[in-house]
Design brief:
four-stranded antiparallel beta sheet; 3 helices; 37% helix
Amino acid sequence: MYVKELTVNRLLSSKVIGDLTNLAKNFESDIKLQSKHYNIDVKSILGLLSLNLHKGSEVKITTKGDDDKDALIAISEFLEDTKK
C-alpha cells in the first residue's frame, strides 16, 4: 500500500476527470482519492465529479494491490502536471 498527499496543479474539467478515470482503469490496484472527508474510488467518474475538485485542491491518494506503486506514480503525475 502506498499513500501520497499532493496539491492538484491542473484544471479539472469533466473531460480531464474522464481521462483520470480511464488512466486509473489501466491498473488492477484499488486507487482511492481523499478530499476533505470523502474517500472516492478514482475509477468512478461520478465519485470524482461529486468531489468538485479544482486546481489547488489538497488530496491524498492511496493505492493497494499488485501494481500499487505504478498506479500511485501515474495518478500523482496526472494530477500534478502543470502543462495540461
